[in-house]
C-alpha cells in the first residue's frame, strides 16, 4: 500500500500517521521526491482500508500495490536509485575512480578477466581497461563451474590479488560471492556480485541484504522477470537498497549462443523499478566477436552499464577465454561505445 502525502503537510500530522502505522505492525519506506513524498507500507495491510487513511488530513491519496515486490517497485520509489561507488583503497599516487550507476548521465563499464589467475595478469588487465576508460575492475576469485574438474578460482588469494590491482590503478573491484561463509572475506570488496546460479539462494540474499555495500544481482539462467525482482526484494527487505540488476542472458531452446540476451528487459525494468540495470554481453553470447555488437545494443536500449570480460591472453585463459576480449579489442569497443552514449547525451 502506498500513501501519497499532501504538499505542505504538517510534520506533526505526518509523525502521528507514521506512529499509528508502526503500532499496527507495519514498516514504512519513505521516499521524498522534488514535489511529492510517498510512504510505502511494508507488511500485512489487508486490515487497513484506504478510507481510514484518507481521514488523516496529511494524506493526499492511497493506493494498493498489486506487484508482490514492494521496495523494488517504482511505485514505492518514483525517483531513480543511483548507486555511487568509489575505490576504498588506492595508492597515494592514484585518485579513487568509480562512477555513479543509474544516474542517467553515464554508462558505467566494468571490465576484467573471468578469473583472477596471477598477480601479473590481473594488474596488466586492470591497467589496460583503466586506460581504455573502464571505471570498475571485474574479476572472479571464487568461480561456480558446471564441472567439478574445471578451474574453481584462486579463492581468498584471488581476492588479495584484486586488492593489489585496485591499489595499483584505483579501480573499484567487482567480484562474486558464492556462500554465506565467504562474507567475512568480502569486507573490503567494493561491489559484491551474486551470480546467476545463486539468484534464488534466499539465505544468501538475506545476508547480503544486511551489508552496507552495493550488490550486483545477476538474473538466473531460467528465471522469469518476476522471480528476478523478487530476489532483489529479498536483498532490499533486509535493509540494503544498493542493488544493481544485471541481465546476462537466459536459457532457451536454441544453443547457437551460450545464452539468449533479453534486451527487452532493460526498458521494462527501467519502467517497473527504480534500480540501475546493466548488461553482461560476454556471458550472453559466449562468443568474442559478438560481444561488441551486443554491448552497442545494450547502450542503445538504455542500459546503465556493462560488465565485460577482458583477458590479456584469451587463448590461454583458465576460464571463458572464448568470450573474452583482448585489451586492444576492448579499447576499440570503448571508443565506439562513447559515440553511442553521446547520442543519448551520456558518457562512459
Describe what this molecule looks like in 3D.
- The chain is an alpha/beta fold.
- The two termini are 38 Å apart.
- It has an 8-stranded parallel β-barrel with strand order 7-8-9-10-11-12-13-14, surrounded by 5 helices.
- It is elongated and about 70 Å long.
- Helix 3 packs across helix 4 and helix 5 (202-208) packs across helix 6.
- The protein is 30% helix and 18% strand.
- It has helices at 11-23, 50-54, 119-132, 156-169, 202-208, 225-237, 265-272, 281-285, 291-300, 327-343; strands at 2-5, 27-32, 37-42, 59-63, 83-86, 98-101, 108-112, 136-138, 173-176, 191-194, 215-218, 243-247, 277-279, 305-309.
- The chain contains 10 helices and 14 strands.
Run of helices and strands: EHEEHEEEEHEHEEHEHEHEHHEH
The total strand number stands at 14
Strand content: 15-25%
Overall structural class, as computed from helix and strand content, comes to alpha/beta
- Rg is 21 Å
Query: How helix-rich are the residues, as a percent range?
Result: 25-40%
User: Which shape, going by the Cα principal axes?
Assistant: elongated
What count of helical segments does DSSP give? Answer: 10
Strand order of the largest sheet: 7-8-9-10-11-12-13-14
Low-confidence stretches: none
Which whole number gives the mean pLDDT? 92
- Mind summarizing the main beta sheet? 8 strands, parallel, barrel
* Termini gap: 38 Å
Indicate the topology.
Elements: E1 2-5, H1 11-23, E2 27-32, E3 37-42, H2 50-54, E4 59-63, E5 83-86, E6 98-101, E7 108-112, H3 119-132, E8 136-138, H4 156-169, E9 173-176, E10 191-194, H5 202-208, E11 215-218, H6 225-237, E12 243-247, H7 265-272, E13 277-279, H8 281-285, H9 291-300, E14 305-309, H10 327-343
Parallel strand pairs: 7-8, 7-14, 8-9, 9-10, 10-11, 11-12, 12-13, 13-14
Antiparallel strand pairs: 1-3, 1-4, 2-3, 5-6
Helix pairs in contact: 3-4, 3-10, 5-6, 9-10
Amino acid at each position: 500500500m502506498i500513501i501519497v502525502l499532501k504538499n505542505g503537510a504538517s510534520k506533526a500530522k505526518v509523525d502521528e500517521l507514521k506512529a499509528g502505522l508502526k503500532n499496527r505492525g507495519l514498516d514504512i519506506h519513505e521516499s521524498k521526491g522534488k514535489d511529492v513524498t510517498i510512504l510505502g507500507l511494508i507488511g500485512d495491510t489487508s486490515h487497513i482500508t484506504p478510507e481510514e487513511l484518507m481521514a488523516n488530513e496529511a494524506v493526499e491519496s492511497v493506493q494498493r500495490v498489486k506487484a508482490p515486490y514492494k521496495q523494488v517497485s517504482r511505485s514505492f520509489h518514483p525517483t531513480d536509485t543511483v548507486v555511487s561507488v568509489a575505490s576504498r583503497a588506492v595508492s597515494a599516487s592514484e585518485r579513487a575512480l568509480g562512477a555513479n550507476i543509474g544516474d542517467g548521465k553515464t554508462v558505467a563499464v566494468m571490465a576484467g578477466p573471468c578469473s583472477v589467475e596471477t598477480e601479473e595478469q590481473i594488474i596488466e588487465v586492470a591497467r589496460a581497461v583503466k586506460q581504455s576508460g573502464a571505471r570498475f575492475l571485474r574479476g572472479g576469485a571464487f568461480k561456480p563451474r558446471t564441472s567439478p574438474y574445471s578451474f574453481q578460482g584462486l579463492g581468498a588469494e584471488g581476492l588479495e590479488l584484486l586488492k593489489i590491482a585496485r591499489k595499483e590503478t584505483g579501480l573499484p573491484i567487482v567480484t562474486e560471492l558464492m556462500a554465506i561463509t565467504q562474507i567475512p572475506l568480502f569486507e573490503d570488496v567494493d561491489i559484491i556480485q551474486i551470480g546467476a546460479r545463486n539468484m534464488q539462494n534466499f539465505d544468501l540474499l538475506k545476508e547480503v541484504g544486511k551489508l552496507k555495500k552495493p550488490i550486483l544481482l545477476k538474473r538466473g539462467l531460467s528465471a522469469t522477470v518476476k522471480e528476478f525482482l523478487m530476489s532483489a526484494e529479498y536483498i532490499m527487505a533486509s535493509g540494503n537498497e544498493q542493488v544493481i540488476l544485471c541481465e546476462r542472458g537466459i536459457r532457451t531452446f536454441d544453443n547457437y549462443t551460450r545464452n539468449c540476451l533479453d534486451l527487452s528487459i532493460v526498458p521494462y525494468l527501467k519502467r517497473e523499478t527504480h534500480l540501475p540495470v546493466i548488461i553482461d554481453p560476454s556471458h550472453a553470447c559466449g562468443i568474442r566477436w559478438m560481444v561488441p555488437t551486443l554491448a552497442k545494443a545494450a547502450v542503445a536500449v538504455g542500459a546503465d552499464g556493462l560488465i565485460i570480460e577482458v583477458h590479456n591472453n584469451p587463448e590461454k585463459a583458465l576460464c571463458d577465454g572464448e568470450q573474452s576480449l583482448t585489451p586492444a579489442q576492448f579499447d576499440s569497443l570503448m571508443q565506439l561505445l562513447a559515440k553511442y552514449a553521446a547520442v543519448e547525451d551520456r558518457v562512459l
